[in-house]
Structure formats: C-alpha cells, structure tokens
Amino acid sequence: MYRYKYMLKAELCAAIIFAPAAAMAQDAATAALPMETAGGDVAAAAAKQNTSAAAPVKLPMEAFAKLPFVEQPSISPDGTHLAGLFAINGQQRIVITPLVKDAGKQIILGVPDETSVYSVRWVNDNNILLGVYSLIRVESDRWYVSRLLSVNRVSGEVQRLLPRMGGQNAADVLWVPSDGSNEILVSAQDSIYTNVEGFWPSVYKVNVETGTFRRHVPGKFDVLDWGADADGNVRLGIAYDDATRRSTLLYAKEDSRGFRAIERANLREDERLNIPFLFIPGTDKGLVMKDNDDEKTIIVETDMATGQDVRTVFEADSGDVESVMLSYDGKALLGVETSEAGEKIWFDGKLKAAQEQLEAAAKNADVDIISFNRDQSKLVVRISSPDNPGLIYIYDTNSQDLAQFASVNEQIGNRRLARPKLVQYKARDGLEIEGVLTLPKGRTGKNLPFIVMPHGGPWAHDTLTYDYWAQFLANSGYAVLQPNFRGSTGYGKKFVDAGKGQMGLAMQDDVTDGVKWAVEQGIADPKRVCIVGASYGGYAAMWGVVKDPDLYRCSISIAGVSAVRREVNDFGNSVRERLYRDQWREMAADFNAISPINGVDRIKAPLLLIHGKKDVTVDHIQSEKMHKAMEKAGKNVEFVSIPLADHYFTREEDRKTLLSSMASFLAKHNPAD
C-alpha cells in the first residue's frame, strides 16, 4: 500500500526512480539465456517430476542459493513469447524470449538499482508493461514511488510512461485492451500537494509504444482510486475521508460518466466496500470478493445499482478465496485460487481439462497453470512438489504436447528433498494453529535440533509448497516448523482478527507453543532450539529471545524490525494517517513495550542480524540500531550487512552470503551433529 504525502519535491518523484532507466538495455548477444526445451507427451514429461532419489544426499549451500530460473513468467497473447524475471549470471533480469523458431530476437534488460519490479504483463503481442517501485529518502523520511515502463519486443525500446507526473503513484493500471491496440488506462497523481488539483489522481489514456498520453477522466476531490470495466469504461471511484474514516463507492453505468455514491463504509468499524473485480457486460451487476456470515472470503454477484447480492458464485470447501483468474478480455471468471495450499480451481472447460490431465500424469506433484495466451491454446505450467522446486513446461492444449522449458533450479534438478507436512497444535488458550513441518530426510524425526521459522507480513501464511530456506535448513540436519500464528491470512477473518492487540503477545505465544508442541511430540530436542525469521518473522525472531529468553539457544533475524514504532507507526502527513494509526493501535497497545530494541537486557541467546543495504521494505537502520544496542549491553551479537542485497535477496551472491552466514552461525551455536 502506497503512502500519499503532503510534502515531497515533485522533481524527485520523476528523477530518482528513472535515473537508471536510460541505462537499462543490455546487449542480448553478450548474455546467453540457458534455456532447455524438449518435446514429448504428458506422461513422459511429467514422469521426470516423479523421479525420487534412492537415498538422501546432502547438497551444497550453493544449490539452495541459486535463483529461480524465472519468476512472474507471462506468455504473450499469441503464445509465441515469454516475458518474466529471469536469473542470468546470478542476477534477475527482465527478459522477453521467443518460444518458437524465427519469432524474433531475445530482449534482456537490467533492473534499475534499488528498484523492484512488482508486475510483468503483456499489453498485446509486441509490448509488455512493467510495474516498478522504489523507496526514496527525502530529509528524514522515506516514500514509495511507483511508475510504469513498457518494452517493445521487436525494437527492444523502453518507454517511460507518464514520466513527468509529480505524484507518488503514477502506475495504477485500470485497463489493458484485448484487441491488440496500444492504449491503456492508467490512474496517476500529478502532485504531492493536497491543495493542488493534480493530487487527486486522474485517469489517462497512455500509448505504450509512443509514450503519448491524454487525460481521460479528471480527478475528483477525495477520490484516490478508480476502476474500469473490461471495455475500458471507467465505472467506479473510491473516495476516502480520514477525519471520519469513511470510504465511499462512486458508480457509473456502462456508457455514462455520471458518478453517484452507491455505498459507504465506516473503516473505523471494520466495514468494507463491495468493490467489483469484474463487471458483467450490459448489466449493472458485478462480481465481488466479500466475507460471508462465517467470515470466509467468497465470490458473490452483486447488483451495483441496488447494492443487493444476487447469488453466491463460489465458496471454497475450506479456506478463503485469495485471488481470481480472468479471461484474456477480462469479461469472464475462469477460476479462483484459494488459501488451501494455493489451490487453483478452474471453471473454464479447457483449463479444467488441462489441469486434470496434467494432475493425472504427475500423480505425486503439484500442477500450477501460471499463465495462458488469449485462446488458452498455450499454457505455462509449473510441475513441482513441496520437496522439489519443479520444472517449467509449455503445454499445448490442442495437441496435448508438453514441452519442457526449464528447470526452476538446475542444481537440484529432479531430486526429492525433505517432504514437508501440515501439522496442527493448540495454543495455550485453545486456538487451533496450523503449521508446516519439515523433517530432515533420512532422519528418525525424534529429538532433532529444531528451528521455528515464523513468516513475514504478518498478514500472510506459509503453505505446503517448496520453500528454499526450510529445505536448506532441513538439508543441514534441522527440523523446521513454520507456524501460521493468529493474525495470519488464509483461515478466515475471525482468525486474522484474533491477532488484533496481540502483536508480541499471543501472536508470539503461538510461535512459542509450536516449539513446546514439537518438544512434547519428541520431535525437537528442547536444548537445541533456535528461532529464525525475516521481515515480520525477523521481528518475531528478536522478540522471541526477549520474551522467552530461556527457550532458545540462538536467534537469526533477517531484515527484521527492531523498533516497531519507527517502522510501522510513523504515518505523519499520510492521507490515511488516522486510519493507519487506528489499525496499528489495534495490533498493540504499546509499541515501545513490544519492540526488541527496548528488551535487549533480557536477551541471553546469541543473535545474528542479516540485512541488505538496498532493502526498500525494511530500513537497514533497523538492524544497525539493534546491533549497536546489543553491543552496548555486552550481548553476543553478529551483524552481516550485505551491500547490494534487497529485501528479497534477488541476487545469487547475496543469497549465498545469507545462507552461508546462517549455516556458520548455527554450526557455532546450535550444531546439527
């Protein structure tokens, strides 16, 4: 979520994030992309994923540090090219690569320094759209800035879209055409001053090939967000008043720009607007994700004109609906993804049939359709398992041929690693907690050196999928528990709300109770327990050795938050300042009382701090200050500051430093052998 500020020099918005952009293009000829392709039928290709090693073999650290071959892969509408974030020479690069012969050249672009690519999508057969953001420092504060880039696969030319916009957010893509044309709809701010008209975002028509643009819908006072239907009609706006914490949904009929208020929500009372993600063409009806009476997230059809629900479109047997998959033209709901281990359920006949056929062939693996072209004749499929990172395939739904595109991690290949499983245990107040337990392969599963690894967020959850940190630790001989403590998503609103007021308290106790459960089960050796985590998990790792100093033998915090007030309670000059303050006050009554930096005197266990200096999510200073406080108190602390690492360690060298530092520290303070 972006924070809109009252004060920011407008020229910095445009200049800082785009300063490296002119130097992004690289000579593709000097960086060969190591792709592997092989044709074959479904059963033969999928059989590779079912290969299992006869005996466990300990792999070197470098195998786990290797970057995934590709992330965010997206196939072109005509099915001839693939775009995504590829690992080349140990670094992520933006790549457009042909999938068929004589389809054109390969494009390779560098990612600007201290900039993250959060989305990769095709506009048409020849152009991709990149959403990027950066965190820039102005005086004593840091602000997120978002922008758009387009890349033409034929020329390789990079266009900076809306480059002169002076606001923080100029990258909210409302609509992309499905007819092959080049104009998209983008909502963008043109000022950072609330008394200037451009502060309230307007909707622009932007040509992704030429970069030209024109204003399509002018901004309205208090309206921060806009929405469009699948035909490019701007149909809704969302207004917000921070003084009252009230949000208003503005709605326009299909061929009208006459917006009227149709719904209001008091965010102070945790009310939510019913915002459609899909408009049913020719009607006032839309599909909405909302919570039902059991506080599960479901999909309903709603009459926008009356506000009445028409019918329930989908409700998962268990868990929440987390995301939806729409048709290429945006007019049909093809499927949903649920919180149940990221399961995808397809309604579209062609995609459902492909899923079922691939699952039948790959019986011991997970099949994930991650991208498809306009007519769903070409699919990008990942076949993986919780104990293997998997293979990427291109599947032809017409011929039913499956062609291997690449191994996600060629050093691991088809090896079966440690097999995770879901476990349940009760917290001390009786709340049922689910976690992912990974035991070292080939071990008895009794009296093991143990690591509890709470996830980041905290509004997230761990699932039964491949996790390179957990696998690395299990490969090193440790049992690993990843608890989905109260406040985690994926278990309904009631479970999320159970975390309110409990940050550092019951949320942390759920982690502790997971350790105690593992000890009671005979899995964990109570004298050999460490806590490891990143981001919020890094906070929990530090706070764990403050709150329960006799439980842990050591702690590793990666990009963790040591001073909670500084990190999450500084909302000065934000348009949603009062709302944010209210929300975080619900998480804890006293931020100082639950900040690890204020509890250093209670820490007994050695602490390792790891943080990247290019982190644009959690400031590097969080670990710096904790390190100084620990040293001043005479505590056992090590600090590994990685000069070029970002929050997600998207450089292979940085992952090597991360994992080797963890391994050395654990070998010293909690050896597995």
Structure description:
With 673 residues, this protein is of the alpha+beta class. Among the domains are: 274-326, no CATH class; 421-669, 3-Layer(aba) Sandwich (Rossmann fold), CATH 3.40.50. The strands form 8 sheets. It has an 8-stranded mixed β-sheet with strand order 28-29-31-30-32-33-34-35, with helices on both faces. Strands 1-2-3-4 form a 4-stranded antiparallel β-sheet, with no helix packed on it. The radius of gyration is 25 Å and the shape is globular.
Lateral arrangement of strands in the main beta sheet: 28-29-31-30-32-33-34-35
Strands, count:
35
Amount of helix: 10-25%
Biggest sheet character:
8 strands, mixed
Structural class assignment? alpha+beta
Choose one word for the global shape. globular
CATH homology superfamily of the domain at 421-669? Alpha/Beta hydrolase fold, catalytic domain
CATH architecture of the domain at 421-669: 3-Layer(aba) Sandwich
Mean pLDDT: 87
Radius of gyration: 25 Å
Instruction: Supply the number of helical segments.
Output: 12
CATH class call of the domain at 421-669? Alpha Beta
User: What proportion of the residues form beta strands (DSSP E)?
Assistant: 25-35%
Q: Distance between the terminal alpha carbons, to the nearest Å? A: 44 Å
Question: What is the CATH T-level topology of the domain at 421-669?
Answer: Rossmann fold
Uncertain stretches: 1-40, 566-572
GO molecular function: hydrolase activity
EC number: 3.4.-.-
Protein name: Alpha/beta hydrolase family protein
Organism: Sphingorhabdus arenilitoris
